[in-house]
């Protein structure tokens, strides 16, 4: 199935899913939500600072780029970006970002390139009063190998649409770091198309911001594609972090694996993880598994975790999901305390062990050390204090399923 044919099918509604709205770039087809809709019911709409109104703005973020040899960055029109074969927007925020960005930035990795270092794009905001609309396209040519880091810092009100095109046989490690100041608002839709026999690993680290709501959507341009989606988030008092994932197995012999882990501390810290997987009738012999784990570190937090599978064919290799929300494991803490380790240090070790397996997969030592240091800074706010009680409860709330 070519990209053009797939786009036509999506735009014309030839295939419907109960898990996700029909995608389109038409803003009017995405009405302003009331908050009762399934895809909006967890989002505090008032805290989006008017982004859903879609008022144009000339605000911008400061951009710094580090480009290995052969990688280019150019500005293209909105119509040129659409013509590259992207999946349309799944919600109003995505459609507004495309409509108001006034074009797109195209980061191009040529076919068969084997980069000698990561592509780094750093985006920094100066003020939460600056409303910024963004459109980024990342294209990785056939049989290329690349690592791309997109880092967000500072303060802003930001709505973005990011397109990722992974060419046939290519390998891409894509890392998003959302390390905003505490007053920032960030909404982003990330649409990824994985080529035939291509491999994608995406990492998403959300560590700062007042409200961060991202939506990652993956489909396949041919059989044999593989997508691994990893995420880590750490929410403090009052922060709302929402991660929505949709993997559309629209080709046979494709694979997906989703693992997101989060920690929460402080009053009214709220995290949301929605994992949707659609296995279409044509997607025979696919494999998929999605997992979300949440560690509640203090009282007054809330973690919502909702995994979904929609299966239209029984001819699959395997499909399943797992979801858990819980507090510190008393047995782990007792084991460490019985060996002379203080309670704050025991808590620190448990949380680091919870996150380390994800952080160490990134493969960029500088970033790994930065993330570990950030987790340590977060722990110092509450968990390492002797006078902070462990949250009550009887352990984990879990949901698991397998086909």
Automatic annotation (TrEMBL):
InterPro entries: Fe-S_cluster_assembly_SufBD, SUF_FeS_clus_asmbl_SufBD_core, SUF_FeS_clus_asmbl_SufBD_sf, SUF_FeS_clus_asmbl_SufD. Residues 130-354 form the SUF system FeS cluster assembly SufBD core domain. It holds the Pfam family SUFBD_core. Belongs to the iron-sulfur cluster assembly SufBD family. This is Fe-S cluster assembly protein SufD. The gene is sufD.
């Amino acid at each position: 199935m070519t990209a053009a044919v797939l786009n036509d099918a999506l735009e014309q509604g030839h295939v419907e899913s109960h898990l996700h709205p029909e995608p389109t770039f038409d803003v009017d087809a995405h009405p302003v939500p009331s908050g009762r809709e399934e895809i909006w019911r967890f989002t505090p709409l008032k805290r989006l600072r008017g982004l859903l109104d879609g008022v144009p703005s000339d605000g911008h973020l400061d951009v710094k780029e580090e480009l290995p040899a052969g990688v280019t960055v150019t500005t293209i029109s909105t119509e040129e970006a659409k013509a590259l074969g992207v999946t349309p927007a799944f919600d109003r925020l995505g459609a507004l970002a495309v409509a108001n960005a006034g074009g797109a930035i195209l980061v191009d990795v040529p076919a068969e390139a084997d980069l000698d270092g990561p592509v780094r794009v750093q985006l920094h905001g100066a003020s939460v009063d600056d409303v910024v609309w963004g459109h980024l396209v990342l294209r990785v040519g056939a049989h290329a190998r690349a690592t791309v880091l997109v880092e967000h810092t500072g303060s802003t009100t930001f709505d973005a649409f990011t397109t990722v095109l992974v060419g046939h046989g290519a390998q891409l490690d894509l890392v998003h770091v959302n390390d905003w100041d505490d007053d920032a608002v960030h909404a982003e839709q990330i649409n990824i198309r994985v080529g035939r026999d291509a491999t994608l690993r995406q990492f998403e680290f959300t560590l700062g911001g007042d409200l961060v709501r991202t939506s990652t959507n993956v489909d396949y341009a041919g059989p044999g594609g593989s997508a691994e989606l990893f995420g880590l988030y750490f929410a403090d008092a009052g922060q709302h972090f929402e991660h929505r994932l949709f993997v559309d197995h629209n080709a046979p012999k494709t694979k997906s694996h989703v693992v997101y882990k989060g920690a929460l501390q402080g009053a009214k810290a709220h995290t949301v993880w929605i994992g949707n997987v659609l296995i279409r009738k044509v997607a025979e012999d696919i494999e998929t598994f999605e997992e979300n784990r949440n560690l509640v570190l203090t009282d007054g937090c809330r973690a919502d975790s909702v995994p979904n599978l929609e299966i239209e064919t029984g001819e699959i290799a395997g499909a399943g999901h797992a979801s858990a929300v819980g507090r510190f494991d008393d047995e782990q803490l007792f084991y460490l305390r019985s060996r002379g380790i203080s309670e704050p240090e025991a808590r620190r070790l448990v949380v680091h062990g919870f996150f380390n397996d994800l952080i160490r997969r990134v493969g960029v030592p500088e970033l790994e050390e930065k993330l570990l240091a950030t987790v340590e800074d977060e722990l110092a706010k509450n968990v390492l204090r002797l006078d902070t009680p462990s949250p009550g409860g009887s352990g984990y709330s879990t949901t698991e399923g397998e086909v």
